[in-house]
Amino acid sequence: ILNITPTETVATPTFNPESGTFTEAQNVSISCATSGATIHYTTDGTTPTASSAVYSTPISVAETMTIKALAVKEGMINSEIAEATYTIQSATSYVFNKIYSHNAVTATDTYMIVDVNSGKALTSANGSSSAPTAVEVAINNDQITSSNENLFWKFEAVEGGYVIHPASGNDTWLYSTTSNNGVRVGTNDNKVWTLDITDEGQSDYHGFKNNATSRYMGVFNNQDWRTYTSIHANIKSTQIEIFVLGEAPTPVLNPELTVSATQLEGFTYEQGAGPSEAQNFVVSGNNLTSDIVITAPENFEIAISGDTTYLTTINLPFGEGTVASTTIHVRLAAGLLRNTYSGNLTVATTGTETQNIALSGSVTMSNAVATPTFSPAAGTFISTQSVSILCETEGATIYYTTNGETPTTESSVYTTPITVSATTTI
Fold first, then answer.
1. Does 238 have pLDDT greater than 70?
2. ω into residue 48 within 30 of 0, thus cis?
């Protein structure tokens, strides 16, 4: 009997891919460099033997798994045990929301830069080797969900614009060369960009412009991001929008204040019979951040339609930024003496110009003595004047002053023309 002891050892099996951490399922192949060797394997952590399962097709690894393999061949020493562990981690998905103003970006937030016309995002994965690939993303209701961190960017505000960094760090940035496919990620100059470029010769374009090279960035043929010295036909339909990680900031809209009148006149009543009849105007507001405050001038008063209480000031509360159309009554207040009255009613709210309504009216007296008149009328003269004072009311007594004081029935009684040889107020 001849006993032959094997001296050669079967090659240790190898795995493809090798051990590692992955975000999706893997198909693992096992191979052995020894021709004709049979590979036995386990996936439960136990050590394989010649009785273990025989490898024939790639092993699907959908969750974390350790594969051990043994290669055997008749007449040879069994291989060493090979082992590979595959950690499968579910990719973290991030939700981005479109922002309403490109220049509302902050240094602390993370963003995606997307041509919403083609549905393609800007990636930093190509680095300085080639123009960034236009990566397809799904946009639903101005929202993008993605786990591709190569699509994530940061904005750094600098003089003249922004430096745009990959979110992974500030040691590289987006820049432009002077060629037509010149968008790159690296450390070269030409890194400052102006955002929110519109209507520069192409009404459909909305994008970024590189300050140093005066080149416009856009998506070329749905395949990559490029720059051109003008808004070239290849990128003219680019519509760049910026999406922020997390909740988008509430858009800041300009307050709008609407007032239906600029002047109300003709308020009147007989002395002792006030107030006057009311006149109306309508006020409304949108995108408000504070109440609308309406203030009447002296001798006038206001009320909200349907309210019998008249006030000098009314506050119209803003609910969710809006004041619905509201009718305001205005009248000349009671208790005034015979005279004319005027002033500006103001309508004001934060963030808008105060609007004025000019009000005017009078209190009359039907049995009042006619107002005196002067002859000659007031004016500038180069010689002494003899001033007569007249009254159309028969039998009326005229009292007057020449010292600027208001006359009363205790003042001097007019009988003859007054000689005026120096500047005098009668």
1. yes
2. no
